[in-house]
Structures are given as structure tokens and as C-alpha cells.
Design a protein that fits this description.
alpha/beta, 53% helix, 10% strand, Rossmann fold, 3 domains, two-stranded antiparallel ribbon
Length: 466
């Protein structure tokens, strides 16, 4: 894993992204050259700053489209056929975006023949590089060999994450080293001998990493000196909390300690971070407002035509430092959605939702008026989802550390919104809180941009809406 601005990025994803950007950039030059050789006309594209700009725009568009359709959430076991089937929609989206760019900026236009060749060459090159990566994975070249210290419930949970987290890292789990006074929850065949030291086990099985997955680290039985020896010999040693933070982008509530939060890294609330965040919010909000203005106009028209009711609705939400404000949204429910008086969780196929409301919720269009809240400074574009005071009071009592999410401004989109389904219970709120805490701890401009990319994917593929 690479760490960029406190956010963990898969090493394989980073390598693929760089290679595929290079392939896309090279395909522009190669496709243009082939088209020149095929053409009867004396068309000539010199390698000048303007042509380099065109090539860069095309390459970035291809990489962006692949990111927007989840091509960098890598499945090492998907095979060539599934990779091809995922690549074609991404190339189609990239072609549509490029066509729009050429329409707005005609000076960048290459010609239909050249563009067609560029996309064919780029698709073939990207498919080949992915096949090579997947074959390397099958041979074990890209796998990390890992040992878990512990064999209880926490170790079992870490193991499940390691073998299912194929979108970030490919792991070869060597086994589990049991500790005394811990209930064993893993299969016996995976248990390593406890009479050998951790350093000897790491050397014997050529381990790359040791994950400490035990609750109780006190007493003479915990091999702290042995783990230090492993670290000094080049074997990475991390605890379960750091493992979940890295692999799942979560801070696990069960494993959090106030001391770890106080003395650990992250939680940047400096003036420069707040200034950069505000500039980012204003810029992104202005751009998206202009791009979605026609969509918002049509939404306004359809909401009015359906039941002649109000277009927008305002609702009290809890913002930064517990201050409340009125959030603005397109109305997606009936006029008397909460006539019973008490606030209700949203549910799947909610009967209170109008016909147009189902559509705009699925596409997240109902969230667009919150841009006004961002411009007012009440919200950020990226941040924890704002909740109503009624639910906040309940969740602060039932979920540890819940109030920490109010140390930053709430957002239109956020880590929890793109990684977890729409919250509709206390348990859902707990799961989403773990993503929100990760964002609060590691928030940065880079992470905001990554979440925006994932938001595009959520909107295009209709994930998580309710």
C-alpha cells in the first residue's frame, strides 16, 4: 500500500493507473501517426504544446472514465472476458466525454479516424497490461504473505477482510499464532505452532507482514520483544485497528481507544487545510451547479407536475460543532410524509416516496440543492452525511464516538455515502460512522478528490440509493 496524504492507495492500483495513463497517452500519438500514413491528404500533426494538450486530455478522460465505472476496484480473479466487458462501457463513456470536449473546444479536435484508432489502440493496450497483472497475481508475484498474531474473534474478522479485499490487495494468509487465554475462532488447520518465536515463523514462511489481532496485550505472554525483532528484520508489524484503517478505510469503533485518538496521527484541522477545503468547496460547487442546471430545471418541472406541491423542502440537520442548520433538497416524498409526527428512518421502497422522487433519489439528484448550503458555508461538498437532531441524540447515546463526526462540516457526498448503503437503522449508522471517522482522521484534498470520483461511480451505477 502507498500512503498519499494519509490515505492508503493500493500499490497495484497505482501501478496500473500510471501504466494505463502512459498507454492512453502513447495511443494518441500512435493512432494519429497511423491515420496520417493512411490518409491521402497532407495532414500533419506536429509534436507541439497544443497537440500535447490534446493527448493529455484524451488520456485523462480515458483514465477518469475507467475510474468512474469502478475499473480501479480491481478483482484479480475476474479474468480476461470480464475485464473486456468492463472496459467497453468505460471506453464508450470516455468517447462521449471526449466528443463533448471537442465540441466545446474545437481547437483540440483530431478527426474521427484518428480518434477511432486512438481508442482501439488504448483499449488493446489496457487489456494486455491487465492480463499481465492478473497472470502475475496467479503466480504469486504480487501477493503479500501475512501472519496473524491471535486466533480469536478479532483475528477471524481480519482474516475475512484479507481474503475478501481483492479490490485493494492480494494476500496469501500463512496462518494464525494463538495466544493464551483467548477463545479460538479459526480452523485448527490454519493455526501455527505457538512454541516457536514470531521471528522464526516469519523467517520460515517468508512473511511480509504480521498483524497483531489480540484484544489483551498486557502481561508477560505478549511477545513484544519478539515483534520488535521482526520489525528490525524488515517484517512489517501493525495492529488490527491499523489493518482495518488501511484495507477497509474504517476506524473500527470496537478497537478505538481515546489515547490512540489523542496521540495518533491525522485529524488535521489547521488553517491551511480549512482554507484549501473552502476553496475546493466553492470551486466544485460552482462547476457542478453550472453543469447540472438543466437537470435541476427539469426536476423542478416534474416535481410540480406530479402533485402540484412544493419543489423543495427544508429540514433541520446537525452541522459542525453541533450547530443546526436547514438543509435544502428537492422534495422526493409526499406532502405529508411524516404526518404521524415522529421522524422516521428511510427504508427500501419507501411508500412515502413519489414517482419522480424514486428517480431523483436513485440518481442522487435530490441532493443537488445542497450546493446552496455549501455556498453559505453550512456544509462542505465532501464530508459526513448530516443527520437530524432527533436521530443524533439517539445515536450519541447508542454509538461510541458518534459525536466526533461533527468536528468537520457535513457533506453532500462522503466516504460513508459511497462505501455503504443508505443508513436506515442504528446498526447502519454505526457502520457508516466507521467510514466517517476515517475521513475525519485522514481528510485531505487528495481524499476529497478520490471520494468525488467514487461518487461519479455511485451515480452512474446507481449504488446505495434509497
Amino acid at each position: 500500500m502507498l500512503r498519499i496524504s494519509n490515505h492508503h492507495v493500493s500499490r497495484i492500483t497505482s501501478i496500473l493507473l500510471l501504466f494505463e495513463f502512459g498507454i492512453s497517452l502513447g495511443s494518441v500519438y500512435l493512432g494519429t501517426l497511423i491515420r496520417m500514413m493512411m490518409s491521402r491528404y497532407e495532414t500533419f500533426y506536429s509534436i507541439n504544446p497544443e497537440f500535447l494538450l490534446t493527448a493529455s486530455v484524451l488520456a485523462l478522460t480515458i483514465v477518469f472514465s475507467m475510474s468512474a465505472l469502478g475499473m480501479y476496484q480491481i478483482n484479480f480473479r475476474e479474468g480476461t472476458r470480464n475485464t473486456f466487458l468492463r472496459l467497453m462501457p468505460a471506453m464508450t463513456l470516455a468517447l462521449a466525454i471526449v466528443s463533448l470536449i471537442f465540441y466545446v473546444f474545437p481547437s483540440l479536435y483530431l478527426g474521427r479516424g484518428a480518434i477511432g484508432l486512438v481508442f482501439v489502440i488504448a483499449a488493446v493496450g489496457i487489456l494486455i497490461i491487465r492480463i499481465l497483472v492478473f497472470k502475475s497475481s496467479e503466480s504469486g508475484l504480487l501477493r503479500s504473505r501475512i501472519i496473524f498474531l491471535g486466533s480469536g474473534a478479532m483475528a477471524q474478522e481480519c482474516h475475512e477482510l484479507a481474503i475478501s479485499n481483492i479490490g485493494h490487495h492480494d494476500y496469501d494468509v500463512i496462518g494464525f499464532v494463538p495466544v493464551e487465554q483467548e477463545e479460538r475462532r479459526v480452523l485448527t488447520k490454519y493455526v501455527l505452532p505457538a512454541d516457536q518465536s514470531m521471528s522464526s515463523l516469519a523467517a520460515k514462511y517468508n512473511a511480509d507482514e504480521i498483524v497483531v489481532a489480540v484484544q489483551n496485550r498486557r502481561g508477560g505472554q505478549f511477545p513484544i520483544q519478539d515483534l520488535l525483532d521482526c520489525k528490525l528484520r524488515g517484517v512489517r508489524v501493525i495492529d488490527a485497528a491499523a489493518f482495518f484503517e488501511r484495507e477497509a478505510c474504517q476506524l473500527r469503533v470496537e478497537s478505538l481507544q481515546p489515547g490512540w485518538l489523542v496521540f495518533g496521527g491525522g485529524f488535521d484541522q489547521s488553517f491551511m487545510r480549512r482554507l484549501g477545503k473552502r476553496v475546493f468547496d466553492m470551486s466544485v460547487s460552482a462547476i457542478i451547479f453550472l453543469l447540472t442546471l438543466p437537470i435541476m430545471f427539469l426536476t423542478t418541472l416534474f416535481i410540480f407536475l406530479e402533485d402540484r406541491g412544493p419543489i423543495f423542502y427544508q429540514q433541520e440537520r446537525v452541522g459542525k460543532n453541533g450547530r443546526t442548520y436547514m438543509v435544502l433538497k428537492f422534495r422526493s416524498m409526499g406532502i405529508n410524509a411524516e404526518k404521524a409526527g415522529a421522524p422516521q428512518w428511510a427504508s427500501a421502497n419507501d411508500p412515502r416516496t413519489t414517482h419522480i422522487g424514486k428517480i431523483i433519489r436513485k440518481l442522487r439528484i435530490d441532493e443537488l440543492p445542497q450546493i446552496i448550503n455549501v455556498l453559505r458555508g453550512e456544509m462542505s461538498f465532501v464530508g459526513p452525511r448530516p443527520e437530524r437532531p432527533f436521530f443524533v441524540d439517539q445515536l450519541c447515546k447508542d454509538v461510541p464516538f458518534y459525536n466526533m463526526r461533527h468536528s468537520v462540516k457535513p457533506g453532500i457526498t462522503g466516504m460513508a455515502q459511497v462505501r455503504y448503503a443508505y443508513g436506515a437503522s442504528v446498526e447502519d449508522s454505526k457502520q457508516k460512522l466507521q467510514y466517517d471517522l476515517y475521513y475525519v482522521k485522514n481528510n485531505s484534498l487528495f481524499l476529497d478528490m478520490m471520494i468525488l470520483l467514487e461518487t461519479v461511480q455511485v451515480v452512474l451505477l446507481g449504488k446505495g440509493a434509497r
